[in-house]
Write a structure and sequence with these properties.
Layout (H helix, E strand, L loop, with lengths): L8 H11 L5 E6 L6 E6 L2 E3 L2 E6 L6 H8 L2 E6 L2 E8 L7 H13 L9 H5 L1 E11 L2
Antiparallel strand pairs: 1-2, 1-5, 3-4, 4-7, 5-6, 6-7
């Protein structure tokens, strides 16, 4: 993964907020078998110091298996690189937050409405951003 500096948590939040409206991001992770860098374009939602995703293929998705093997990842959004570690919030208090964030951003979900099968059944994944990488 790339080098970088470690801004204050408020700086990470500010920089993520600046790119939160982008439609997609690139998630870069280490291949669990090859050890080579792999990039996949994904829908995402930024929340504080986290970038959230939903994996429709759940644990069958190659990018999920890569993150399960090596948690370090980079998320590229709007020309910025956010480096951190993957977390799998299913079964925690973060799970409904992730589901609702993605459903609201991409499906127009709002409080009081039922989540779609995608939003309700996909595997929630987050990258907890530790640093912003300078190019």
């Amino acid at each position: 993964m790339s080098g970088g500096h470690e801004p204050a948590p408020s700086e990470v939040r500010r920089r993520l907020a600046e790119v939160a409206d982008a439609s997609v991001c690139d998630l870069r992770s280490v291949g669990r078998v090859s050890g080579a860098m792999h990039t996949v374009e994904l829908w995402f939602a930024a929340d504080e110091d986290r970038v959230a995703f939903l994996a429709g293929g759940r644990e069958r998705a190659a990018w999920v298996r890569n993150l399960q093997a090596t948690a370090e990842a980079e998320v590229l959004i709007g020309g910025r690189i956010f480096a951190g570690r993957a977390a799998f919030p299913e079964g925690t208090d973060r799970e409904p937050v992730v589901r609702r964030l993605l459903a609201a951003k991409y499906q127009g979900w709002s409080e009081g409405r039922r989540l779609s099968s995608w939003a309700a059944g996909s595997l929630p994944v987050e990258v907890v951003v530790e640093r912003v990488v300078d190019r």
